[in-house]
Amino acid sequence: MSGSSRVVAVALALILLPVGCSQGGAGESKTKNALTIAITAEPIKWLNPANDNSSPGIEVARAMFAPLVDTDPDTGKLRNIIAESVTPDATSRTWTIKLKSGQKFQNGQAITAKDYVDTWNLTAYGPNAWQNNGFFSKVEGYDDLNPAAPAKPTATAMSGLKVVDDRTFTVRLKNPFSQFGLTLQYLGLAPLAEVARKDPKAYERKQIGMGPYKLDGEWKVGEDIKLTKWAGYQGEKPQADRVTFRFIANGDTAYNEFLAGTVDFVQVPATKKRSFKTDAPGRWLVSQNAGNIVYWAFPSYDADFANPKLRHAFSMALDRPALANLVGIATPAGGLAAPGIPGARPDACKYCAYDPAAAKKLYAESGGLHKPLTIYYNTTNSTGQIFSEALGNMVRQHLGIEVKYIGKQASEITDLATARKLHGVRIAGWGHDYPSIEDYLTPMFKSNGDANFASYANPKVDALLAQGDSEPDQAKAVAVYQQAEDLVLEDMPLIPLWHTQDAYLSAKGVHPRNSKFTGVWPLWSTIDR
Amino acid sequence: MAELGVAVAADALDLAELRTLSNRELLWKLLRKPQFVVCSLALLGFFAMAAVPTLFTSVDPRSCDLAQSRGASTAGHPFGFDVQGCDYFANVIYGARPSVLVSVVGSAGAFLLAAVLGLLAGYFPGIVDSLISRTADVLFSLPPLVAVIVLLNSVQDRSIWVIVGVLLMIGWPAGMRLMRSSVFSVRNREFVQAARSVGVPPLRILRKHVFPNAMAPLLAQTTLGVGGLVGLEAALTFLGVGLQPPSISWGSQFGVAASYRDTPHLFIWPSLFISTMTISFMIIGDSIRDALDPKLLR
Question: DSSP letters of A288-355?
Fold first, then answer.
């Protein structure tokens, strides 16, 4: 280093030094037991888990509230948190929920069964228009609170919810649903304290929680959410004494903030998925969990694709490991449920192994396609075309068919499919709401499923799903769902492709919990800095 | 009558001396410029690539193995492999066709359209001029890139001809204006008036007297713009409104490379070809303009 550049370096250090100190937030976050977590989203507008189904809202609720039950990150089994027991009746239609004793809200009020029932009724009451209203549509009496448009609700409480005693209440569902216990880990079901229920609007800035962290003073919309550890929480206590959630709308900006050292934890945005390992060496982690699945979807209303052998041939012409490699961080799909979900079998799919010769034979037996295969790809992001071309190349080269591509906005493709005017294949995806194999089947493959991309309908599958729903024994229920999965894979209306994983950056000395069952939780980080 | 003919001939001779070179002289003058020769050879190379890609590579650009995705260059694959695991050299060679077609057909078409409309507008003031010029004004008032994106988005199957057509539609008004103004400066010159006075039909006057004397600025502008069209085709494809797969083009290679910045060879090769072709066209355009510019003569 020459003399002059040394002078420059010293001068630079002098200039930078005070700047480094003046960033109060950054300096604070470097203290051992404080974490600053970037949430890459627009700032949330209120603190009320019952009226928030956005992922940033749920992330904040995970710190301030606690669920009835959750998935044990080590074993993947359901464990009780606030609940002492969750018990279905013989048909899985009436559920009895008993709370642990001696639990309190952060204002000192004891948590009772009434708090749950009243909060849930408040959420389900149509005119309130709270975001988690839809969750309760499975509960008996929900329709009285949410009548069709012009009519007024005839009740303010669902007939299916009953308080038995201070610590016990029952939920009666419209139909048997064996997976209801699993859905209770949703943080949108957290109870509001009595004072907060009386005037929900007033408590949106000073919400009273019941989880590991409480608000540090009143919060203003648009500002960071500052939390401190609450000693009264009886569940597993996290290590950090203070947690700050900082909202940064743009993923790239949040990523750069991390690199600049102002936040301790950030999710890697899609645009950085190929460069994060070199941008932040030693400070990245990839989620061990992949709670989603990506499909190649066929239109079942199109006679050209009616033969299941044709779809099996397509599926076997795909080299899934190479595709997963192209996607970046992904696991090849071997069944319909994501790995880590109870009952997921990595070899459930008989037609998902790469075998070009067998694929060609099956294709010939199926009679083949009599026109070029049209592949629709999403132009909304840069990867839609690349992934579709990779799929197209494989079927073109291994089955000897011509392919043509049509690029459109994602919403246009969905509209075409809904109107049954899409005469080709497209990429579709699903991420689970609760970790159950059932949530990988009902939405896509039940004849009136919410996400039935292929307009698929099979009465046998519907019957098996209904049977699984009413089976109170989880192991038996899973076995029934697996039978449904086998039937669906035999029909293969959607070709399972891969499960994508998320990546995160976390500061040196901060080690977020990373579980193959629950993914990455920054709140329960081990801190050794 | 004879006197008049002599006068016209003398005038024309005078003008010719003042104004410009014959085609042969122009060609000779151009060929003496080394940069013109080099760039013409480069363009010939690109044209050959577009016409007969198999001269340059025997590899099928659509034979891909995803396992080779983004692989570095190896024997037989000098440019390595692209994201899909296809031979990149073959892909870059085959990618020349859309660029050459768009630039050459687009420029020639735009030149013709602008010349014809500009001649008509400049020579027939009144209703013809108003009609053409106002139409051009309407097209001028649209932001060109936005108009192109909207138009192309409304087409389901975008072939190279659709793109050329849209570019022509948006591109002609500028050339038309240039042509129209140079026609204005020529239409009242003595030799045109002379031809008119002896009863030569207007179309013949336009063809024989006005066009040759008014085309130089448009020609120079068009050749300078060819390179821009190569870039525009690439930009449109990059934006997702240009050519769709399975068409192979430099623009789409460029677009894919943009999201794989850690593999620079994906980016370097098509951009090298795009720049070489664009610069060649521009230097040729410059040379022609210099050769035609009366101020630089003698």
Answer: S---EEEEEE--TT-GGG--HHHHHHHHHT--HHHHHHHHSSEEE-SSSSPTTSTT--TT--TT-S--
Q: Chain-wide mean pLDDT for chain B?
A: 82
Cα B109 to Cα B101, B104, B115, B166, distances in angstroms: 11, 8, 10, 11
Q: Which of B273, B245, B105 is nearest to A386 (CA)?
A: B245
**At residue B268, does pLDDT exceed 60?**
yes
Q: Which of B175, B166, B161, B174 is nearest to B147 (CA)?
A: B166
B32-63, pLDDT tens digit by residue? Answer: 888 999 999 999 999 999 889 888 888 888 88
pLDDT, one tens digit per residue, over A147-160 is: 987 888 999 999 99
Q: Which residues of chain A have pLDDT under 70?
A: 1-32
| Distance of residue A404 Cα from the nearest chain B Cα, in angstroms | 7
Burial B261-298 (b: 16+ CB within 10 A, else e): eebebbbebbeebbeebbebbbbbbbbbbbbbeeeeee
Q: How far apart are CA B2 and CA B5, in angstroms?
A: 5
CA pair distance A242, A246, nearest whole angstrom: 13
Is there a contact between B67 and A405 if contact means CB atoms under 8 Å apart?
A: no
H helix or E strand, kind and range, residue B184: helix B160-187
**Cα of A254 to nearest chain B Cα, Å:** 19
Q: Is B45 exposed, middle or buried (0-12, 13-18, 19+ CB in 10 A)?
A: middle
What per-residue confidence (pLDDT) applies to A23?
39
pLDDT, tens digit (0-9, with 9 covering 90-100), for A374-393: 999 987 777 788 899 999 99
Contact with chain B for residue A271, Cβ under 8 A:
yes
Does A274 contact B261 at a Cβ distance shorter than 8 Å? yes
- Are the beta carbons of A326 and B66 separated by less than 8 Å? yes
The SS3 call for residue A501 is coil
Task: Kindly state the helix (H) or strand (E) to which residue A164 belongs, with its residue range.
Answer: strand A161-165
pLDDT of residue B296: 58
DSSP state at residue A51: G
Q: Which of A285-289, B153-157, B169-173: highest mean pLDDT?
A: A285-289
| CA distance linking residue A137 with residue A287, whole number of Å | 32
Taking each helix axis as running N to C, give the angle between helix B127-141 and helix B160-187, from 0 to 180 degrees, rounded to the nearest 10. 130
The interface predicted TM-score of the complex, written ipTM, equals: 0.71
DSSP letter assigned to residue B81: B
Kindly list the residues from chain A whose CB atom is less than 8 angstroms away from the CB atom of residue B258: 382
Secondary structure (3-state) at A370: coil
Backbone phi, psi, residue A347, to 5°: -120, 25
Distances (CA, A) of A286 to A12, A348, B136: 36, 25, 56
Q: How far apart are CA B15 and CA A47, in angstroms?
A: 84
Q: Say which amino acid occupies B187.
A: R
Instruction: Report pLDDT for A32.
Output: 67
- How many CB atoms are closer than 10 A to CB A291? 25
| A279 part of contact set with chain B, CB < 8 Å | no
Please tell me the distance from the alpha carbon of residue B39 to that of residue A204, in angstroms, as a whole number. Answer: 70
- Biggest CA–CA distance in chain B, Å, is 83
- According to DSSP, the residues that pair with A307 across neighbouring strands are none
Q: How far apart are CA B190 and CA B196, in angstroms?
A: 10
A382 shares contact with chain B (CB less than 8 Å): yes
Work out the end-to-end distance of chain A between its first and last CA atoms, rounded to an integer number of angstroms. Answer: 32
Q: How far apart are the first and last CA of chain B?
A: 35
* Chain-chain contact of B259 with A386 (C-beta, under 8 angstroms): yes
pLDDT for B71-95, tens place per residue?
A: 888 888 888 888 888 889 999 999 8
Whether pLDDT at B220 is above 70: yes
Q: Which residues of A touch B259 (CB under 8 A)?
A: 271, 274, 382-383, 386
Whether the CB-CB separation of B97 and B53 falls below 8 Å is answered with: yes
